[in-house]
Design goal:
Order of helices and strands: HHH
Shape: elongated
Structural class: mainly alpha
Number of strands: 0
Oligomer: single chain
Distance between the termini: 35 Å
Radius of gyration: 18 Å
Helix content: over 70%
Number of domains: 1
Largest sheet: none
Length: about 70
């Protein structure tokens, strides 16, 4: 669950800029929102890659006992 908590913590850091942009129309906050979303995309890709690696290792471990 550590990765899940990392995502939650990351998203919570975005709240002020989201509020400033969507509720107050602050253009600078909009730029920061876009940067936050790029960071979220990078984190998501990192987790996707990790999951894929773990799945591959699990598959290798299951396949070695057979045959």
């Amino acid at each position: 669950m550590n990765r899940y908590q990392e995502l939650l913590d990351l998203i919570q850091t975005f709240q002020k800029d989201f509020d400033k942009f969507y509720q107050k129309g602050n253009k600078s906050a909009g730029t920061r929102v876009r940067k936050h979303m790029a960071a979220l995309k990078r984190k998501a890709q990192e987790i996707r890659n990790e999951v894929q690696e773990m799945k591959a290792k699990m598959k290798e471990g299951v396949g070695t006992g057979e045959a």
